[in-house]
Amino acid sequence: MSDRAYALFEEQQQARGINIDEVKAKLKALKIETPSWGYGDSGTRFKVFQKEGVPRNPFEKFEDAAQVHNLTGLAPSVAIHIPWDKVDDYSKLRNHAEGLGLSIGAVNPNLFQDEDYMLGSVTNTDSAIRHKATDHLLECVDIAKETGSRDLSLWFADGTNYPGQGDIRKRKAWMHEALSEMYNAMTPEMRMLIEYKCFEPAFYHTDLADWGMAYNMAQKLGPQAEVLVDTGHHLQGTNIEHIVAYLIDEKRLGGFHFNSRKYADDDLIVGSVNPYELFLIFYQILSAANDSDAGIRNAVDNIAYMIDQSHNIEQKIPAMLRSVLNVQTQYAKALLINHAEVSEAAERHDVLGAEDAVRRAFEFDVTPLLHAIREEQGLPLDPMKAYLNSSYGKDILVRGKGGASW
Ligand code: PSV
Ligand code: MN
Ligand code: MN
């Protein structure tokens, strides 16, 4: 991309009233956490394909994640999942991460893979199982202390498949009981991010099925509990941007799990199917970013952007690169929205004008802008190409097949 293309872009945006220096600063500050499980073998319930060169342990997952960060400057932290990433000494993993220029991000407990949890973990009728599940939550708080992680991301598979199978109200109380125990064990710096999901693996009811239930729990627990929005966890047609705006306004939007989907919780590469949705999510975030209420601005600053994907058929590292780059592209486009223009049109009751002012930003080609910031940051202009031209993908083949899987 030539300097001329960028000069033209800058001129065009400035003429629209966009402060390009601000846009660039915001783009350079964007941080997206990648998930350790996205580097390992994962798949569908039908088959987990074993890929060659997949990391054999958490240390190698961080090495792969470092590739994504080094080439993009976007992904400085990695979420871990316990026990998938269980190690004897977390300070060793932390040092390894730091040596690679990374940090350990959110700690994700796993309360869905144990035989004991078939009929629920923290909401199981068996109090011994509930205690076992709660102990795991507490173990994750201890791990977060060692890893220096601020966030604990909680997703529960708990739910029922048939009417009558469980007492929904009792289960709600048990959920609250377990979360309260965990909440009380957290340090003041920690945050509990409560993730909801409308269905799967439970097909009749899920204990935390939507944002309202997660929000209600968070509110009852206290200010350190917030809601985590996984973009794949809604019924078709749900207006996720609306949920985002609502939760920001309540100062309870803790973070995102970004992924793309066509049907259900497909966990595909972010922005591969629905980039406009991602753009509209950022539109809501950015329109709250300049709110006169400092609490709202603070809430926006503390949103954790995380990826939650599983790469079944594609190469893991390029897939993760594609995802973080797609997030960056949509964020860049959203930064080109002229908010004053949108609200002036809305106030005039100019419905088409307001819609146009939002959509027009989406239609710009932001390649010259992204190339310019990458150049300023000393990054490759095309991180994907740089990765594919590097020997890393071939070098890791010595790991063979049968690496870490979920
Ligand atoms: C299962 O739906 C899930 O994808 C949730 O989104 C969690 O965040 C993730 O797995 C990791 O536990
Ligand atoms: Mn998720
Ligand atoms: Mn999911």
From TrEMBL:
One of its GO terms (biological process) is L-lyxose metabolic process. Residues 88-266 form the Xylose isomerase-like TIM barrel domain. Pfam families: AP_endonuc_2. InterPro entries: L-rhamnose_isomerase, Rhamnose_iso-rel, Xyl_isomerase-like_sf, Xyl_isomerase-like_TIM-brl. Gene3D superfamilies: Divalent-metal-dependent TIM barrel enzymes. Keywords: Isomerase, Manganese, Metal-binding. GO terms for molecular function: L-rhamnose isomerase activity; metal ion binding. This is L-rhamnose isomerase/sugar isomerase. It comes from Paenibacillus prosopidis.
